[in-house]
Design brief:
The protein is built from twelve helices and two strands; from the N terminus they run ααααααααββαααα.
C-alpha cells in the first residue's frame, strides 16, 4: 500500500518505490525495483488513483460499522462484570496483529460481554469471535453437548446408516451458517501454523485432501469454542511436535497390537 500511494502521489523512481517494501517481503529490493521499471501510462495511473479512492472510502465505511458494532457490544456488558479486561494474548504475533488492526478494543468488549476470550484458540481472531458471539451469544446451554453444537453448525458429516451399513439417503441441503463459514476460514489459516491444530490440519490434508482437512479442522475448532464458552475449559496449545509425537505413539501402539494378534513381535532397529 505504501508503494501504491507513492505511485499515485507521483513517485516514479523504481529504487525509491522498492525501498518502501515491507521488511517481511520475500522478494529483494532489487527484484521489486526491476518489476517497477517500465512505462507509466496515464490512463493506467488514473485508474489506479480512482481504485485507491474507492478503497479508502470502503475502509472508512468499514471503520464506521466497526465503531457502531463496538458500541452495541459495550452496551451488552453485564452490569456485575468482575473482569474489566482480558488477559494479554499468549502469542506476541497475535498481540501485534490486534494492535496493528485496531481490534484490541473489540477483543476487550467481547471478553467483558461473554467472560471468555475466544482469540486464545489458534486460528480464531477477533472477527471470528465477533461472528460467533453475534450469532450464538455467550450462553450455549441450549446445546446438550458439543455433538449437538457441531451438528447445528453443519459441521457433522451427513451419513445415513441402516443396520450398521452406509446406505444412500435422501439429499439434504447443507445450509452453511455464518459461524460455519467463519470457522472454515479460521481452519484455512492454520495450514502453515506450527501449532497442534496446524499439525492436525496437515495430517488430514495428506490423507484425504485439503477440503476434508478444512472441514475436519473447523469441526475441531467448533468443539474447542463450545468447551470454552460452555464450561470455561481453556485452550492450551501443545505445539506441532508434541502433537506429531503423540500421534506416532498411538499409531505404533495400534500396529503393535495388530501384529501381536498375528503372532509377530516388534523390536526397534539398532542405532
Amino acid at each position: 500500500m505504501a508503494i501504491i500511494r507513492a505511485i499515485v502521489s507521483g513517485e516514479r523512481d523504481p529504487r525509491a518505490l522498492a525501498s518502501l517494501r515491507d521488511c517481511r517481503c520475500r522478494k529483494s529490493e532489487d527484484r521489486i525495483a526491476e518489476e517497477l521499471t517500465g512505462n507509466w501510462r496515464p490512463e493506467h495511473l488514473f485508474n489506479l488513483g480512482q481504485a485507491l479512492k474507492v478503497y479508502d472510502q470502503l475502509c472508512g465505511v468499514i471503520a464506521d460499522y466497526d465503531a457502531e458494532i463496538l458500541k452495541y457490544v459495550n452496551s451488552l456488558q453485564p452490569p456485575d462484570s468482575k473482569e474489566p479486561s482480558a488477559p494479554p494474548p499468549a502469542s506476541r504475533a497475535k498481540a501485534t496483529k490486534f494492535s496493528k488492526l485496531g481490534q484490541e478494543p473489540m477483543r476487550q468488549a467481547l471478553y467483558r460481554m461473554s467472560g471468555s476470550d475466544l482469540t486464545t484458540i489458534d486460528g480464531v481472531g477477533v472477527d471470528t469471535a465477533a461472528v460467533i458471539m453475534s450469532e450464538l451469544g455467550p450462553d450455549l446451554s441450549v446445546f446438550p453437548d458439543e455433538g449437538h453444537f457441531v451438528s447445528y453448525l453443519r459441521l457433522a458429516p451427513n451419513i445415513s446408516i441402516s443396520a450398521g451399513k452406509k446406505v444412500p439417503g435422501k439429499f439434504r441441503a447443507v445450509t452453511s451458517t455464518r459461524v460455519c463459514n467463519a470457522l472454515r476460514m479460521a481452519a484455512t489459516s492454520l495450514r502453515n501454523s506450527k501449532t497442534a491444530l496446524g499439525a492436525y490440519y496437515r495430517r488430514i490434508s495428506r490423507r484425504k485432501g485439503k477440503s476434508v482437512a478444512v472441514f475436519a479442522t473447523a469441526r475441531k475448532l467448533a468443539q474447542l469454542v463450545y468447551r470454552l464458552i460452555r464450561y470455561g475449559q481453556a485452550y492450551v496449545d501443545t505445539g506441532s511436535e508434541v502433537y506429531e509425537a503423540r500421534f506416532n505413539r498411538r499409531r505404533l501402539a495400534s500396529y503393535a497390537k495388530a501384529l501381536k494378534e498375528m503372532g509377530y513381535k516388534i523390536e526397534p532397529l539398532a542405532a
